[in-house]
Amino acid sequence: MLANENWTIQKQKQKRRRVIVQVGILLIIAFFSINALLTLKTYKPYAEQNVAMSSTLDTGFVALSYFGVARKSEQPLIGIDRLHEHLKALKDQGYVTITQADILAYYQVGKPLPAKALFLMFEDGRRDTAIFSQKILEELNFKGTMLTYPENFKKKDPKFLVPDDLIDLEKTTFWEMGTNGYRLAFINVFDRYDNYLGELDPLKHAKVAPYLSRKYNHYLMDYIRDEYGVPKESYARMRERISYDYEILEDIYEKQLGYVPRLYILMHSNTGSFGNNDRVSAVNEYWINKLFTMNFNREGYSFNKQGSSLYDLTRMQPQAYWHTNHLLMRIKYDINQNVEFVQGDADKHRNWETIKGAAEMMDETIVLTSLPQDRGLLRLKNDKPFRNVSLSVNLKGNRLGMQKIYLRADKDLTHYVAVAIFNNSLYVTEKTGGAEQELYKLDLDSHDGKIPVSIPQDKKAAEMKALEVFARYAPSASQAKIYTERLQEKSGEDAPTVDEGADQYVPVISPHQKGNRNVNLTLKGKDLRVVIDEKEAAAVKVSALNTGLVYLETAWGGWGFSQRNLADDVYDGVFEQLVIMENTGAEQKAVVFDSRRKGFGGMIFKAKQYWNIVLDWFMPRTPFDEQDK
Q1: Where are the beta strands (DSSP E) in 370-453?
Q2: Which of 266, 307, 485, 500 is the most buried (most CB within 10 A)?
Q3: pLDDT of residue 271
Q4: Closest-CA residue to 214 (of 567, 624, 625, 561)
Q5: Contact 125, 162 (CB under 8 A)
Q6: Residue 371 DSSP code
Q7: Which residues make beta-bridge pairs with 415?
């Protein structure tokens, strides 16, 4: 009995200690959250600063538009630290933000802009965007435009800003308003097997998105059509449907903000006009000209200049996985001007020679950014060549692209042994003066033990997912019952496997699919051993070359699959915790390069990592239903 009482007392003490710790952490989080929301500064326009102005009217401006901001990066929301790195780098380049009024004056009366003018936008009207970006805008004296969907105002969803929030944002002076339109919705949707799904709201779309192709459209872009492409509505009905969205948008903004934002982003971009059908385009054009003074009608390129239409402006949408030099590389080739890339840790940078692209040494990581549709290349400045090497690294660049390590290389890369992960496959190659020879190739899905899926199996899964979604969100119980019965029938259908002779389904890699591979290489004599994620991936005989330089390379992996059809041809190779050692004989090894943090700096870095883990546990981020744009 006494033992049970002691056990109970001990448990209560542990519980009290745990509660005290949790309360303490929550108080710290609350302090930082309140501090983030307090606005103590006022935006200072570029005209009040000593800013270099353009000597001509055609330096134009760069327009960037972020989907949203979260505490840490998780596609498509950019993390607060990454956003700060992006915008701080632009500030350091001399960029200042301009306003909607500046753009109007530039186009309408020819008023010069600053030599380095940035127009900054944040789409979707998310509450976390405002919270996490406010202090960054204040620190850098940047102004942004917050775009919203007024349909979200009535939903009372805490993820989205409401009119009172928007009014408060304007009062801080660091924000002005824009709109993405009344709603985000999809029409004429087919899955990748040409099964007709019809009209989808964002929630349904997010559920079936893994099985979709690019065969779809946005609500304002076309007639609503049947599975044969035949319009299901007349011209008059189409015009009435589209006009309704603009009319209700105007009504909501007038009543709740007191005005209609003058900046519009038409969903979706790059149609060549204002829709995928001439008659639909004409309806959109009428309302755009009536309600708005400017429209960002294109996406993919950042540079706008004199001679463009105010209703055909272009923006670039930086992705959550872009490192800073990725953004700078894209801007550099958009504006065709020199850009200073960030280098990071100068001491580590001195160990390497950048031959192509741009390299940043950050924390324990080397980020090597390629040139557009080209490569990035680094050479280790070793004092003497070495032939026998042990190397370990975490490769964290996205799956679509190449991260390559050259060993036993010469200065001109005419001789080498190389190990690369390219589009989720392992390649071992060598070059001995002639063309590069492939010695070994391994699909890393196979290395992971993934069971191949047949095309019939994937098609069945796509059809079942659609029926499941339609049953769950059916407008009536009777319709839900019909979809549920069809789902049960579909689940009982046979779908032959690859082992039964069916063709394998091979998904096309998306540009934003994350990569994370731990790679260990051992090269000794003619033997090369490759271990990936603690499992042997290759044991290959190579030539006994006498050269001994080490290179890192990254390269663009091709266009890949993207429902948004991203126009991005730059790649970030991410080499984390890179350790290179020379095998000097027997079991002796000499460290040639080590990117890991050590000593007191390493302790601080680890403490920060643990703190972020704690924050993740206490502040789980609300899942973002990625919405195709």
Answers
A1: 375-380, 389-395, 402-409, 415-422, 425-432, 437-443
A2: 266
A3: 87
A4: 561
A5: no
A6: P
A7: 432
Answer whether residue 3 shows pLDDT above 80. no
The one-letter amino acid at 187: I
- What digits encode the pLDDT tens for the residues 476-530? 999 999 999 999 999 999 999 999 999 999 998 888 899 999 999 999 999 999 9
- Can you tell me the distance from the alpha carbon of 604 to that of 279, in angstroms, rounded to the nearest whole number? 61
d(CA 271, CA 265) in angstroms, rounded, equals 13
pLDDT at 228 over 60: yes
Please tell me the pTM assigned to this model: 0.89
Tokens of 184: 């985000």
Cα separation values, 425 from 68, 401, 413, Å: 32, 10, 22
Q: Where does 193-300 have alpha helices with state H?
A: 202-208, 235-256, 278-291
**DSSP classification of residue 382:** -
The mean of the pLDDT values for the chain is: 90
- Beta strands 402-409; 527-532: pairing state: unpaired
Q: Please tell me the distance from the alpha carbon of residue 175 to that of residue 159, in angstroms, as a whole number.
A: 18
Tokens standing for 495?
């779908």
Bridge partners for 362 per DSSP = 365
Over residues 449-474, the pLDDT tens digits come to 999 999 999 999 999 999 999 999 99
- Using DSSP's 3-state secondary structure scheme, residue 226 falls into coil
Q: Contact, 377 vs 341, CB < 8 A? A: no
Parallel/antiparallel/unpaired status of strands 61-66 and 303-304: antiparallel
| Token pair 């802009």 in the structure block, residue | 113
* Closest CA relative to residue 327, chosen from 287, 305, 358: 358
Q: Are 491 and 376 in contact (CB under 8 A)?
A: no
Environment class of 93 (CB within 10 Å of its CB; exposed 0-12, middle 13-18, buried 19+) = middle
How far apart CA 52 and CA 96 sit, in angstroms, is 10
